[in-house]
Amino acid sequence: MNKQEQVMMDFRDLFNKMVWLNKSKMEDSLKGYKPSEVHCIEAIGKNDDPNVTKLAESLYMTRGALSKLTKKLMEKGLVESYQKPDNKKEIYFRLTEQGKVIYNIHEELHQEFQKRDQAVFEQVTEEQFDAMLRFIQAYSRHLDAEIMKQGISIH
Q1: How many Cα atoms occupy the beta-carbon half-sphere of 119 within 13 Å?
Q2: What is the pLDDT along the chain (155 residues), one digit of tens a residue?
Q3: Whose CA is closest to 40, among 82, 83, 81, 69?
Q4: β-bridge partners, 95
Q5: Alpha helices of 76-125 — where are they, by DSSP H?
């Protein structure tokens, strides 16, 4: 196995371990909510004036799938839609009080996991962080270009 294959395999393995380790705590704390619902709540909570297009892009979903998801979240009372006075065409979303509770639980879990893993990150130098970030950003730009080249669109 060459180094490129090893990096990709190790990335997948690392990601899978994180998911596996965090899964039961997430499921216990966010009972009754699917991961896609929680991620949508997170995206609505973190974006200014999130609309279907902005959310679909940030979650790598089609607008149709995102519309179904936001409708389900509205039915559950977690999200509400609104329009701006100067733009009656566009529909935006915000969290309800119940949605904010789910958002905050999710954020607290992320902070807990970050604290758990802090010992590893304390050993990483600024130069190592910079190198990792440069690699991730370069790879992300490459994938963006490949997505465009293949004409794949989430719009």
Answers
A1: 1
A2: 899 999 999 999 999 999 999 999 999 999 999 999 999 999 999 999 999 999 998 998 989 999 999 999 999 999 999 998 888 889 999 999 999 999 999 999 999 999 999 999 999 999 999 999 999 999 999 998 998 898 876 54
A3: 69
A4: 79
A5: 97-121
DSSP one-letter code for 105: H
| C-alpha to C-alpha distance for 79 and 81, rounded to whole angstroms | 7
Which one-letter DSSP state was computed for residue 6?
H
Sequence letter at residue 81: S
Contact 70, 55 (CB under 8 A): yes
Q: Do 71 and 21 form a contact (C-beta atoms < 8 A)?
A: no
- Is the pTM higher than 0.70? The answer reads yes
